[in-house]
Amino acid sequence: MATLATRQDVAADRPGLGEASSSGAPSALFEPGGATLEDSILGVWDELVAEGNAACPVCGDSMSAAGGCEACGAELS
């Protein structure tokens, strides 16, 4: 069995992708704007350490430092 790899022009399939910005540089596919997953988890961790409980990052219910989330069972360790 043979396999053939070809290069596809991604910009042709997705309008706006790869177009140059006003500075002449191509636009980025991913431009984060806001809190990252890491930021969210570290915030919950800090709240658990400081207060002993926090909102679960998975379901939003109450999470305790000792037992994890009461509703979904998620734990940070």
List the helices and strands and how they pair.
Layout: H1 10-13, H2 37-51, E1 53-55, E2 62-64, E3 68-69
Antiparallel strand pairs: 1-2, 2-3
What would a concise description of this structure say?
With 77 residues, this protein is α+β, with helices and mostly antiparallel strands. 25% of the residues lie in helices and 10% in strands. Strand 2 and strand 3 form a beta hairpin.
Note down, in words, how this protein is organized.
With 77 residues, this protein is α+β, with helices and mostly antiparallel strands. The protein has a domain of 42 residues. The chain is built from 2 helices and 3 strands, in the order H-H-E-E-E. It has a 3-stranded antiparallel sheet with strand order 1-2-3. Strand 2 and strand 3 form a beta hairpin. The protein starts with 9 loop residues before the first helix and ends in an 8-residue tail after the last strand. 5% of the residues are buried.
Instruction: Classify the secondary structure makeup into a structural class.
Output: alpha+beta
What kind of sheet is the major sheet? Answer: 3 strands, antiparallel
Strand content: 5-15%
Q: Please compute the radius of gyration using only Cα atoms.
A: 22 Å
According to DSSP, the number of beta strands is 3
Per DSSP, the total helix count is 2
Mean pLDDT: 77
Shape: elongated
Terminal CA distance: 48 Å
Regions with pLDDT < 50 over 5+ consecutive residues? none
Pattern of helices and strands? HHEEE
Strand order of the largest sheet: 1-2-3
Helix content: 10-25%
